[in-house]
Amino acid sequence: MRRKLMSILLVLTMVTAIALTGCSGDKQEQESATDNELSKTPVEGGTIRVGISQDLDSLDPHKAVSAGTKEVLFNIFEGLVKPDSDGNLVNAIAEDYEISDDAKVYTFTLREGVKFHNGNAVTAEDVKYSIDRCADTSNGGPLVSAYSIIESVNILDEKTVEIRLTEPNTEFLAYMTTAIIPKDYADTETAPIGTGPFKYVSRSPQENVVIEKFEDYWGEKAHLDKVEFRIIADADMVVTNLKGGSVDLVMRLTTSQAAELGEGFHIEEGTMNLVQALYLNNDVEPLNNEKVRQALCYAIDPDEIIDMISDGKGVRIGTSMYPGLKKYYDETWTKYYEQDYEKAKELLKEAGYEDGFNLEITVCSADQPHMDTAQVIIEQLKNIGVNATIEPVEWEAWLEDVYANREFQSTVVGVDASNLSARAMLERFTSDASGNFINFNDEEYDALFQKAIAETDEEEQVKLYKELEGILSERAANVYIQDLANLVAISDNFDGYEFYPLYVQDMSTIYMVE
Fold first, then answer.
1. Are the C-beta atoms of residues 251 and 262 closer than 8 Å to each other?
2. What pLDDT score does 15 carry?
3. Three-state secondary structure along 83-127?
4. Residue 152: beta bridge partners?
5. Cβ contacts of residue 365 below 8 Å, gap of 6+?
6. Which residues contact 391 (CB under 8 A, 6 or more apart)?
7. By mean pLDDT, which of 41-45, 104-108, 276-280, 343-347 is the weakest?
8. β-strands 47-52, 249-253: how paired?
9. In this predicted model, what pLDDT tens digit does every residue of 285-329 receive, in sequence order?
10. What would the pLDDT profile of 325-373 be if each residue is shown by its tens digit?
11. Span 83-127, pLDDT tens digits
């Protein structure tokens, strides 16, 4: 079964998300900028300074956890294939591939002339090393959970790499976006080397990360000479930094922040392509009681949250799937829980919490949309006797305490897919998944997930994935809220920003204007 990469339109497009948020991905300019038509002709060269809310958790693309880290590393690293802004998987280090009829053997033909940032040519050995590294289980689970089904990675010749799986997997191509790095390179965590349009220059922890144009890039070269990602951990300083000229571009602004900007900036509107929810630790009291979790779902109104924190810009969701994953997104669950305080109180009484309880919501203090969401949740939960409070933490503490150690009661955060597959969104909730930070444990879910990933009939597999989404919603694994609006503020000195149906920031398309 031979499939050309360029002809594959994956399940992910922005059409649904765009329609529901009322934006087209085109520039929505501030009124003060309407008299200043931006040039559409790229001016080569220059430097852009991009504000980001958190430092990178790792420079190693195989070990990075944070979506904020991955969106930066997207510019440095590439896999055998990579996503484009339309949701296609397109040629990258591989120029072609074949999938066996039983979906158990994937064979990749490598592109000629691809170089690492150190000038060395990419070889089949590098590809095998990178995939084997992510599949290694000597220190626990594999770095990429889907790689647990890899039987072997074989070099057929200097241009051909074969990956054999222990079971059929029709979605495995989506995991071939995993970064290819040099074989046995020891400094990936301090001086990373990839094949992307930008190469790593430097990093000052809690200050900045600098990348520069890679002149020997195999594909369409970047317009800018340099990109500096500057860390703005204090959300209150975002607008000040933009107006003061210390940064030129900032993603994920709130509507109030965007409204503060006047002449000299334009605003792009999209969605973040993630699932924002009040994530619940299903293993701690009283959240280990399904009726308590359902009561929280009935008490919280996502529409009110969207209206209050972003003037209605956002897409309500009801399970762990966002609209950009168009093929798998099931609107059935969007309003499975409608705000009903009496129903919520009844469930709490049945669970033995008639007088309510205290709930701590751990939130990264630098993520203003999540902080704002938590504030609205606190007010809504007062109506059923639940006394919720926010525990603000730094991002590094969130990663360690909440994600890694699972020492939390609840948290507001956004979870993304990391690649173009439904499996990436749903596998984390299987009971033994390393990323199952909410400790969801459901035998029916585990069994159905195994059935879904083994299914080779596409239509039937989609149906099974939607059934998994239903389990998460019905059993109130979390309180699902929205796919957040993504407002991007850009200096009028720059143009060319593109939204992706994934949580990435592609700096290669941005250019200076005269």
1. no
2. 25
3. ECCCCEEEECCEEEEEECCCCCEEEEEECCCCECCCCCECCHHHH
4. 164
5. 233, 235, 371, 392, 393, 394
6. 360, 361, 362, 363
7. 41-45
8. parallel
9. 999 999 999 999 999 999 999 999 988 989 999 999 988 888 889
10. 888 899 999 999 999 999 999 999 999 999 999 999 999 998 889 999 9
11. 888 878 899 999 999 999 999 999 999 999 999 999 999 999 999
> How far is Cα 176 from Cα 330, in angstroms, rounded to an integer?
26
Burial 463-488 (b: 16+ CB within 10 A, else e): ebbbbbbbbbbebbbbbbbbbbbbbb
Burial class, 35, CB count within 10 angstroms (exposed 0-12 / middle 13-18 / buried 19+): exposed
What SS3 string covers 198-221?
EEEEEEECCCEEEEEECCCCCCCC
Amino acid symbol at 223: H
Give the angle subtended at the CA of 456 by the CAs of 453 and 462, to the nearest 5°: 65
Q: Considering only CA atoms, which of 116, 81, 84, 78 is closest in space to residue 97? A: 81
Give φ, ψ of 101 to 5 degrees: -60, -30
Give the Cα separation of 197 and 361 in Å (integer). 39
How far apart CA 440 and CA 477 sit, in angstroms, is: 7
CA distance 400 to 403: 6
Report how far residue 106's alpha carbon sits from residue 160's, in angstroms, rounded to the nearest whole number. Answer: 11
Provide the 8-state DSSP code for 49.
E
Tokens representing 13 are: 């497009």
Rounded-to-integer distance, Cα 122 and Cα 346, Å: 62
Closest by alpha carbon to 20, among 300, 348, 269, 384? 269
What b/e string do you get for 311-350 counting C-beta neighbours within 10 Å, with b at 16 or more? eebbbbbbbbbbbbbbbbbbeebbeebebbeebbbbbbee
Longest dimension (CA), the chain: 69
Residue 433's nearest CA partner among 304, 307, 320 is 320
Alpha carbon distance 498, 323 (integer Å): 18
Q: What distance in Å separates the CA atoms of residue 439 and residue 424, rounded to the nearest whole number?
A: 17
User: Which residue in 358, 332, 314 sits closest to 481, CA to CA?
Assistant: 314
CA-based nearest residue to 72, from 174, 204, 198, 224? 198
Using alpha carbons, list the distances in angstroms from residue 338 to 290, 300, 344, 479.
17, 8, 10, 12
Q: Is the dihedral of CA 314, 254, 274, 301 positive or negative?
A: negative
Token digits of residue 51: 């504000």
Q: How confident is the model at residue 40 (pLDDT cuts 50, 70, 90)?
A: low
Spatial distance between the Cα atoms of 362 and 368, rounded to a whole number of angstroms: 13
* Residue 181 CA to its chain's centroid (Å): 21
Whether 25 shows a pLDDT value over 60: the answer reads: no
Measured distance CA(297)–CA(312) in Å, rounded: 20
Distance CA 197, CA 356 (A): 54
